[in-house]
Specification:
There is one protein chain. The protein is of the alpha/beta class. It is built from four helices and four strands. It has a four-stranded mixed β-sheet with strand order 1-2-3-4, sandwiched between helices. The N and C termini lie far apart (about 40 Å). The mean pLDDT is about 95.
């Protein structure tokens, strides 16, 4: 899923998808900041859900962080990890939810320090 960063829009989409997908389909969001518990809680297929947040542009920086919901099955993370490797990305697994995810928090810290250097 790659719709705008609007929680209600994303939840509506995942609720629709949840009603039509089978038990082997991975449901993934490219959200850059919305936590999986906010996106996927209450879904029947929550074990198949995770966030796969790419660095932009993904063709230039092939890094993607995988952020599972607390109920995401390890096999879902493994399948997504393998797919990301297959398409040339370098996936990083987060083992728990972190506000802002890891990449954004590191990026903001670096940008903040860069501004301090300029001042």
């Amino acid at each position: 899923e790659c719709v705008p960063e609007n929680l209600e829009l994303k939840k509506q989409l995942f609720a629709q998808l949840d009603g039509i997908v089978g038990d082997q389909v991975v449901l993934s969001s490219s959200s850059s900041c919305l936590l999986p518990t906010r996106l996927f809680s209450g879904l029947v297929h929550v074990k198949q859900c995770l966030v796969a947040h790419p660095v932009n542009p993904p063709y230039y920086v092939p890094l993607v962080e995988l952020v599972p919901h607390p109920e995401t099955a390890p096999a879902t993370v493994d399948r997504t990890y393998a797919l990301m490797r297959k398409i040339g990305q370098s996936p990083v697994r987060l083992t728990k939810e972190v506000d802002g995810f890891a990449l954004n928090r590191l990026q903001y810290a670096i940008i903040s320090e860069a501004w301090r250097l300029v001042e």
